[in-house]
Amino acid sequence: MTTNTPDIAVSPENDENPSYTFDPDLIANQGRSVGVVLGTRLCEAARAKLKGAPEDLSYRELHALFRAHCSGQEGYLSPQHPVLETVARILLTAPEDALPLSEIYEQVSSLWLTSAWSPSLDAGSMRRLLDHARAHGIARA
User: Fold this and answer.
1) Which stretches of the chain are DSSP H helices?
2) pLDDT recorded at residue 24
3) CA distances from 138 to 30, 41, 44, 99 (A)
4) Per-residue pLDDT tens digits for 47-68
5) pLDDT band at 118, cuts 50/70/90?
6) How far, in Å, are 22, 24, 30, 75, 81 from residue 50 at the CA level?
7) What angle do CA 59, 74, 106 make, to 5 degrees?
8) Which of 36, 42, 90, 108 has its CA 20 to 30 A from that of 74?
9) Stretch 77-96: mean pLDDT, rounded?
10) The dihedral of CA 24, 27, 32, 37: what is its sign?
């Protein structure tokens, strides 16, 4: 039997609270433009700072825009976004290149507290979801 599991070295110390990162190579390997995919996620403040099209910028330049302008913008992280979109935005705006599952789960859970609709997702379920989120550019660090 064949399963589609990510190539991850799992050990007891990293399986309970693994760290995740946004990996632009996962997007590029799917034949999609990193600039286009990330350009659609830019907040208004970052769009205002753009000099040209987002697809003309490198991942490093786009990531700097996310960190500088989107991390504090009200409404950028919203409980109305799907879970994987929310996590991608959290990872793109985080000051660190990778975040542990516990921190991601805490941020998503705090967003859900402000929502009338909050999905039921425990940390273990979120870990399994993120371990299979390569199509969204999310990978274990």
Assistant:
1) 12-15, 24-28, 34-39, 44-49, 59-65, 83-93, 101-113, 123-130
2) 97
3) 13, 14, 23, 11
4) 999 888 999 999 999 999 999 9
5) low
6) 21, 19, 26, 20, 24
7) 80
8) 36
9) 94
10) negative
The token pair at 115 is 């929502």
Assess contact for 39 and 24: CB atoms under 8 A: no
Q: Which of 41, 47, 5, 9 is nearest to 22 (CA)?
A: 41
pTM of the model: 0.85
How confident is the model over 26-43, as a mean pLDDT?
96
Angle CA(48)–CA(76)–CA(70) in degrees, nearest 5? 45
Residue with tokens 């870990």: 127
Q: Region 18-25: what's the mean pLDDT?
A: 98
Residue keyed to tokens 């590029």: 28
The predicted model gives 74-90 an average pLDDT of: 92
Distance separating the N- and C-terminal Cα atoms of the chain:
27
